[in-house]
Structure formats: structure tokens, C-alpha cells
TrEMBL record:
Descriptive protein name: Activin receptor type-1-like
Quaternary structure, from the entry: Interacts with TSC22D1/TSC-22.
Disulfide bond as UniProt keyword: yes
Record-linked SUPFAM superfamilies: Protein kinase-like (PK-like) (SSF56112), Snake toxin-like (SSF57302)
Binding positions for ATP per the UniProt entry: K230
Molecular functions per Gene Ontology: activin binding; activin receptor activity, type I; ATP binding; BMP receptor activity; metal ion binding; protein kinase binding; SMAD binding; transforming growth factor beta binding
Localization annotation: Cell membrane
Gene giving rise to this polypeptide: ACVRL1
Domain GS: 173-202
Alphabetical UniProt keywords: Angiogenesis, ATP-binding, Cell membrane, Disulfide bond, Glycoprotein, Kinase, Magnesium, Manganese, Membrane, Metal-binding, Nucleotide-binding, Phosphoprotein, Receptor, Serine/threonine-protein kinase, Signal, Transferase, Transmembrane, Transmembrane helix
InterPro entries according to UniProt: GS_dom (IPR003605), Kinase-like_dom_sf (IPR011009), Prot_kinase_dom (IPR000719), Protein_kinase_ATP_BS (IPR017441), Ser-Thr/Tyr_kinase_cat_dom (IPR001245), Ser/Thr_kinase_AS (IPR008271), Snake_toxin-like_sf (IPR045860), TGFB_receptor (IPR000333)
Length: 504
């Protein structure tokens, strides 16, 4: 393309790079990746394609413009050299183009510009940083004025990210208005990436509150309020990518789903760390809570119904611009359910989740080699008979696991003065860290399910929970209850006016 060539030529090149919506042709039929979409033709903050792209366009008489999007056509362009008009960069993992900047290349002459050739050009210039801070400062002032009018001084200005904290009426440490439509990307998927990164860099780690194969969970402080920081181990990088992808592309704002704040790849102590920042709940996981507390029947029911509400929200597809695909969790267990200060549950850890939309009939299973927790695996998973191409199959495995979580809750419930110590499901049949074969023998060969104590029949609430467990554990997956049916049945059981209490 010669200097002074018509803009039509540039438009054709952008079309070839996947940065316009003008061309409906999508011949690629392989697995898709979700990419950051930042160009005038984006219909949302993300798009899906065969690869992700960043394109720097320099037009005569205009400032250089950076565009991000998805590529599906002309893969040969990914290997091309930069020209005096265009630099381009391609990558192939979820959201890999969001933290890439080519903007400094605009200051070089064509002869000085290095070829990208697949190298990650992570160049963020001081000018861009200054502009970002100025923009965030202006945005902050505007938000503060709106919040002061709206909430009459309940909030305060807390830094250049313009996000405001408040304590909820229940006492939860929450980022108030975090997912207010005023602050989101417009798709209902959460905060803009730049604000997420700003928040992440302002968090101070205070104490480690949990460790596992996935990494660590810390309590952090952001402007004096507690947040949870999940730091993923390097071997679980795909789980971080998956949770980041789902939280940033799906409307998951719900009382019984762990509240997402930010995700960032940050450098601490000379090493790269993968952070997921969420609301902090001091009671910890349901697993931890049940170790410490015994329950009255009404509290047991409150825990169960709130967890069911979270699972039903995941499983349902919501249509419309502010909707969400159906999601199956695939690793539901008491360690992945948190207890809030109002004694309701919320579901966490979406690193293995699968998504499905009826309209496109596209099943997005992600790219995570990690498998679920063996102790909670349904029989069809253990004997490798699950239909991996059928989304309903994954929902049915969640229901099996939910029945096991109900069993854990009912063991710790007092009936006629009797209560049992906490034990995990199948504690009396398999070792502490059971193998796949251990679980397969017990669940598939011997067809065992956890023993339901006879004492549950003495209480109408727990009797209802006992029957529900049985209907979650049918060997035939399609015969199991749905999450919506579980939710409605539990809500009918919870009509008692008695306020649930923790018994020490």
C-alpha cells in the first residue's frame, strides 16, 4: 500500500484482520477462543474467533489507533512484517490480546520497527499510562458526584479507579455498586479491564486463609475493605484463564454466586502471579463452617436453599442483551461453596465450568486439563460413560454432587439432641485421598450412596432433604432432579418464620 492510498484499502486490510463486522464469512470450524474486542465495530467487550489480534493503524494526519479483536480469516497475515501503516500481532489463548500494546511502535520509522513474529510485544509507554491516569481521574470525579447525589454521603472517593466501597446491611465486606451498570463495559459482564488492573495493583495482601492444589487464597485490603485474592499456581493457569473468561463475558451477578471484582496477571517478588479478586467472606467455605458449627434444622435449610438458588442461576440460560448462557459447574463440593455473614451460601470456583447457548448450540468446554474432585464424581463420570458432547450431562453431574453437599449439611444438624461429627461423603468407604479406582468401585461397582440417618425422618425439614438426596443420586442421570426443581422444593420447605441460629 503506497503512502496516500485511499482509506478503502485500509478498511479491506482491517476486514482481513477481523477488525470489522462487515464480513459475515466465518469458514473456520475449529475450537474458538474468547478475545478482548476494542474497536469501533465491537458489539461487546469480547468476541470469539480462531485467534486474537492487536492491530496498530497509522493513517496520514491522524493519531495512531490500536484495535483489538478476533481473527478467523487469512492466518498468513499473522506472520507478516509491520509496514509504515499497520502493525499486527496474533495470539491463541483466551483474552491473550487484552494486555498487549503496540502503541510505542508508532514513534519508530519503518526501518526501525522490529518484526513481531510471534514475540509478545508487551510495551506500555509512559504517555499511555499518563493518559490512562488522567482519564481514570476524570471518571472518578464524575462517579463521586453521582454517588454523592444518589447515596447522600454513604460512600467516599477511593482512588483513581473510581470504584466505591460500602458495607452491606448484613455486614458483608463488599464492593458496593461494583457491577452497577454505570461502571460496567455495557454488556453486564463487569468492570473494564483497565479498572480491574488498577484495583488489583492497589490490593495489599494481609493473611493467607487457604491453600490447595490450585494455589492460595489470601485476605487482602483495598482502601480499608477486605477482599479475597485467589493466587493460582502456575500449573493451574488454565483455571485462572477460564474463571477470568467466564466472569468477563457472562452476567453472573447474583447473591448466591461469589462476587467477582477483578482479574490480573501481576508481577510480585520478581515473578508473575495470576490473581482473581473476589468478595471476602470471613466464615470461609461450607466445608470449614461445618467443621466448626452444628446447625438447627432451619439454618440447615437456609444453607441448602441458598446454595440451590446459586446452582439454579448457573444452570439457567437467560436470553437478551443482559442475559447469560447456561453454565454447568463441574466441581461442586462443600469446599467450593462459601458461607456469607448473613448465613447464606454462594458458589465459587468456575475454573472447570462449561457454557452452552441454545441459539448457537455451541458447547464451550474450555481448555482445562484439570478434572473435578473424585469424591464428588457421578457414576457416569467414574465409569467414563458420560456424553461429553451433551450439555445436559454436565448439569446432571452437578446434581449428584449437590446431593452429597446436602448430606454433609444434614449430618451436622441437631435432631432431638443428637448430632454427628463432620465427615466427607463416603468417609467410611474410601481413603482420605481416594483414587479414581477407589471411587469407581464404591459408586459404580458396589452402587453405594452415603447412608442417610434414620433420625432425619423425625423432622419435616430434614425428612424433605433426605428425600431430595435420594432423587439427586439416581443412577440414571436424566432421572435426577433439576436445579430449578430443587430450588422450588426447598423454598416451599422454608416457610417457617423461625429465624435460623448458629449453635456453638
Amino acid at each position: 500500500m503506497a503512502l496516500g492510498a485511499p482509506r478503502r484499502g485500509l478498511l479491506l486490510l482491517l476486514m482481513a484482520l477481523g477488525l470489522t463486522q462487515s464480513d459475515p464469512v466465518r469458514p473456520y470450524r475449529g475450537p474458538l477462543v474468547t478475545c478482548t474486542c476494542e474497536n469501533p465495530h465491537c458489539r461487546g467487550p469480547t468476541c470469539q474467533g480462531a485467534w486474537c489480534t492487536v492491530v496498530l493503524v497509522r493513517e496520514e494526519g491522524r493519531h495512531p489507533q490500536e484495535h483489538r479483536g478476533c481473527g478467523n480469516l487469512h492466518p498468513e497475515l499473522c506472520n507478516g512484517r509491520p509496514t509504515e501503516f499497520v502493525n499486527h500481532y496474533c495470539c491463541y489463548s483466551p483474552l491473550c490480546n487484552y494486555n498487549v500494546s503496540l502503541v510505542l511502535e508508532a514513534t519508530r520509522t519503518p526501518s526501525e520497527q522490529p518484526g513481531v513474529d510471534g514475540q509478545l510485544p508487551l510495551v506500555l509507554g509512559p504517555v499511555l499510562a499518563l493518559l490512562a491516569l488522567v482519564a481514570l481521574g476524570a471518571l472518578g470525579l464524575w462517579h463521586v458526584r453521582r454517588r454523592q447525589e444518589k447515596h447522600r454521603g454513604l460512600h467516599s472517593e477511593l482512588g483513581e479507579s473510581s470504584i466505591i466501597l460500602k458495607a452491606s446491611e448484613q455486614g458483608d465486606s463488599m464492593l458496593g455498586d461494583l457491577l452497577d451498570s454505570d461502571c460496567t463495559t455495557g454488556s453486564g459482564s463487569g468492570l473494564p479491564f483497565l479498572v480491574q488492573r488498577t484495583v488489583a495493583r492497589q490490593v495489599a495482601l494481609v493473611e493467607c486463609v487457604g491453600k490447595g492444589r490450585y494455589g492460595e487464597v489470601w485476605r487482602g485490603l483495598w482502601h480499608g475493605e477486605s477482599v479475597a485474592v485467589k493466587i493460582f499456581s502456575s500449573r493451574d493457569e488454565q483455571s485462572w484463564f477460564r474463571e477470568t473468561e467466564i466472569y468477563n463475558t457472562v452476567l453472573l451477578r447474583h447473591d448466591n454466586i461469589l462476587g467477582f471484582i477483578a482479574s490480573d496477571m501481576t508481577s510480585r517478588n520478581s515473578s508473575t502471579q495470576l490473581w482473581l479478586i473476589t468478595h471476602y467472606h470471613e466464615h470461609g467455605s461450607l466445608y470449614d463452617f461445618l467443621q466448626r458449627q452444628t446447625l438447627e434444622p432451619q439454618l440447615a435449610l437456609k444453607l441448602a436453599v441458598s446454595a440451590a438458588c446459586g446452582l439454579a442461576h448457573l444452570h439457567v440460560e437467560i436470553f437478551g442483551t443482559q442475559g447469560k448462557p447456561a453454565i454447568a459447574h463441574r466441581d461442586l463440593k462443600s469446599r467450593n461453596v462459601l458461607v456469607k455473614s448473613n448465613l447464606q451460601c454462594c458458589i465459587a470456583d468456575l475454573g472447570l465450568a462449561v457454557m452452552h447457548s441454545q441459539g448457537s448450540d455451541y458447547l464451550d468446554i474450555g481448555n482445562n486439563p484439570r478434572v473435578g474432585t473424585k469424591r464428588y464424581m457421578a457414576p457416569e463420570v467414574l465409569d467414563e460413560q458420560i456424553r461429553t458432547d451433551c450439555f445436559e450431562s454436565y448439569k446432571w453431574t452437578d446434581i449428584w454432587a449437590f446431593g452429597l453437599v446436602l448430606w454433609e449439611i444434614t449430618r451436622r444438624t441437631i435432631i432431638n439432641g443428637i448430632v454427628e461429627d463432620y465427615r466427607p461423603p463416603f468417609y467410611d468407604a474410601v481413603p482420605n485421598d481416594p483414587s479414581f479406582e477407589d471411587m469407581k468401585k464404591v459408586v459404580c461397582v458396589d452402587q453405594q450412596t452415603p447412608t442417610i440417618p434414620n433420625r432425619l425422618a423425625a423432622d419435616p425439614v430434614l425428612s424433605g432433604l433426605a428425600q431430595m438426596m435420594r432423587e439427586c443420586w439416581y443412577t440414571n442421570p436424566s432421572a435426577r432432579l433439576t436445579a430449578l426443581r430443587i430450588k422450588k422444593t426447598l423454598q416451599k420447605l422454608s416457610n417457617s418464620p423461625e429465624e435460623p441460629k448458629v449453635i456453638h
